[in-house]
Amino acid sequence: MNDTLGHPSGDALIREFGQRLKAIVRQGDVVARVGGDEFTVMLRGKVSVGEVDGICQRIVDSARRPFVFGGQEVFVGVSVGVALAPRDGNDRVSLLRRADVALYFSKNSGRSRYTFFSESMDQLLSRRQEMEGDMRAALKAGNEFQVHYQPIIDARDHRVKGYEALLRWEHPKFGSISPELFIPIAEETGLIEAVGAFVLREACTAAAEWSGKSVAVNVSGIELRDEGYAAKVKNILLSTGLSPQALELEVTETAATDEASAVVANLDALRAIGVQIAIDDFGTGFSSLGRLRTLNVDRIKIDRSFVRGFGEKAGDEAIIRAIVELAHASGLKTTAEGVETSFQDAGLIRIGCDSLQGFLYSKPVPLRDIELTRSTDSSPG
């Protein structure tokens, strides 16, 4: 935000968010800023898990209300990690460390959410080095990683227009391991390029057999900073026979606004051959609606946290409507993620979303089940 709107606006946002926090907690509780954009909240006295849950939800909701600076509406996401005394520790150091572990899991779960610490989190993090070796072995073995596909629905007629490719890892010892855990490890250890190439090749190979349907694949910012990334994508398209126009690459807001020369060159080169670029989970990081006009992308994917509160939380419909209207005015398409109810489906269509995605239509399924989901392209019951 400092780079986009200037340091005064960045400082003002921090101050306003701090005021929102103070308005949520009880008298006597402590709110402290401990880093650039990091706060610690200490709830004093006896408090139930239910009360803590409610406070965390209000913190997440408060951050999702837009901030206004210089006439622009700015959206930010917040991630919260929670540790409880005496369950998770009795001293400040233990509680802060465990809250930080829970925060790590919140950040890697898509942001705009909160997570309570559990011992299993510590156990998983302690296995990180072991998991790195297991990931290398899985890439060589070729049978542990699988790509599942979730339908993307055309809002005009409820027919399947494409699929999003989502990676799954079935570990021979630990069973199903969440991407929220292993993708950050892949990024930190340099394995993300091999993992990303595996998913892209699998998805393009599958999509080459679909008639008139596209496939969307998530791309890490680390991959985009590789000067040769666009060339790798082109080679995979050529070897699989998939038309570039049938491929959509989903990037984070951070990657889409990264001004590094390699990122810009890769996005330019890919769009030049017809590959579509989408911003994933829009609204969970730093988001300025005013920047939509300048982004080098074709589609905005509205984060499920806004869709989840549609019709229940004041302002969510207005936020989605503002995103859709400005996206359309900027020549961009929109997809709403996390659609789970017919009420959300009808409301998002009324607002003008172009595409819809969520459990209402189908969960992610293995490739072998694609024909089953493709046979249900009609309106949900």
UniProtKB/TrEMBL annotation:
<dbReference type="InterPro" id="IPR035919">
    <property type="entry name" value="EAL_sf"/>
</dbReference>
<dbReference type="InterPro" id="IPR000160">
    <property type="entry name" value="GGDEF_dom"/>
</dbReference>
<dbReference type="InterPro" id="IPR029787">
    <property type="entry name" value="Nucleotide_cyclase"/>
</dbReference>
<feature type="domain" description="GGDEF">
    <location>
        <begin position="1"/>
        <end position="119"/>
    </location>
</feature>
<dbReference type="InterPro" id="IPR043128">
    <property type="entry name" value="Rev_trsase/Diguanyl_cyclase"/>
</dbReference>
<dbReference type="Pfam" id="PF00563">
    <property type="entry name" value="EAL"/>
</dbReference>
<dbReference type="Pfam" id="PF00990">
    <property type="entry name" value="GGDEF"/>
</dbReference>
<dbReference type="InterPro" id="IPR001633">
    <property type="entry name" value="EAL_dom"/>
</dbReference>
<feature type="domain" description="EAL">
    <location>
        <begin position="128"/>
        <end position="378"/>
    </location>
</feature>
<protein>
    <submittedName>
        <fullName>Diguanylate cyclase (GGDEF)-like protein</fullName>
    </submittedName>
</protein>
<dbReference type="InterPro" id="IPR052155">
    <property type="entry name" value="Biofilm_reg_signaling"/>
</dbReference>
